[in-house]
Each structure stands twice: as C-alpha cells, then as structure tokens.
C-alpha cells in the first residue's frame, strides 16, 4: 500500500510538471488516453466495458490529479516549514487518495469483473512507474543509482 501511495504521489508530480507546459490540455489528454489504452490492454477490458469504464476512470483521474496538484502547490509554499507538519499533511493527502479510491471502487466494480477490479490499482501503479521513468529519462535524470 505504501508503494501505491508513493507511486501516486510521484504521478502527481509528473502531472503537475506537465500541466505547466504549453498545450498542457493536449498533453494531459494524450497522457490520459495512453493510460486508458494500457489499462484496457492489461486488464483485458472488453469494448462494452471500455465504454462504461472510461467516463468513470476520467472522473477518478481528475480527482486524483486535482489532489496531487494541490499538494504540489502547497509543497512549494511550505519549503522551509516544520518537517512534522509537512509529514502530517503528506499523510492526510495519502488518506484523501485512499478515500477517492474507496469511493470509486464500487463504480469500477459495476463495470469490471473481480479479476480486473483486483488488478486495477496494481496495473495503474505499474503505468505510473513507467511514466516516471520516461519523464526522468527525458530530463536526463538517472534513477536507481545510490551514492
């Protein structure tokens, strides 16, 4: 669970950075479309399921993006503040993200079968990792190296 939350936090950072670029609506839409394509592929979602899944996933994605984007904005405003307060706010955001996931689980369950639903957040986490690696490779940052 910690891993999923960390991945979603990193996803928010990427989305916040991409949201500040020119044509961000187009980039965000392309990113969303790519995520949906991969989810459909990895979860073996049928065309009928896809038609119902996409609007639900779009609302879910918008709420998660808004949560993490707000967190990114608040982080930049509190750079020199107390580490304890920062940690508390971080945990609160993680709880809010979990609440969003819980709220949408019933909606996803109405469209996806049990296997698809059980893998949804796991697959989403894998996609986020891929996005993070791709973003880091484009910016020239190296990952996985310890000093």
Q: Main traits of this protein?
A:
0% strand; 147 residues
Description:
By secondary structure, the protein is mainly α. The model has no long low-confidence stretch (mean pLDDT 82). The two termini are 27 Å apart. The chain has five helices and no strands.
Our estimate of the beta-strand percent is under 5%
Distance between the termini: 27 Å
Q: Report Rg.
A: 16 Å
Q: Count the E strands.
A: 0
The best one-word shape is globular
> What multimeric state do the chains show?
single chain
- Unreliable runs: none
Determine the number of helices (DSSP H or I, runs of at least 4 residues): 5
Helix/strand order, N-terminal first: HHHHH
What is the SS-derived class? mainly alpha
Helix coverage percent of residues? Answer: over 70%
**Mind summarizing the main beta sheet?**
none
- Estimate the mean pLDDT confidence: 82
Short recap of the structure:
The chain is mainly α and 147 residues long.
């Amino acid at each position: 669970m910690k891993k999923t939350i960390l991945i979603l936090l990193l996803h928010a950072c990427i989305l916040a950075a991409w949201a500040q670029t020119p044509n961000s609506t187009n980039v965000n839409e392309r990113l969303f479309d790519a995520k949906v394509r991969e989810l459909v592929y990895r979860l073996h979602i049928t065309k009928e399921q896809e038609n119902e899944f996409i609007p639900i996933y779009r609302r879910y994605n918008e709420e998660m993006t808004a949560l993490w984007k707000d967190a990114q904005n608040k982080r930049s405003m509190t750079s020199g503040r107390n580490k304890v307060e920062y940690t508390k706010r971080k945990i609160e955001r993680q709880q809010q993200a979990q609440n969003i996931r819980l709220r949408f689980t019933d909606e996803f369950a109405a469209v996806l079968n049990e296997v698809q639903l059980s893998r949804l957040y796991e697959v989403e986490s894998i996609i986020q990792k891929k996005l993070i690696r791709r973003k880091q490779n484009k910016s020239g940052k190296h990952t996985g190296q310890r000093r």
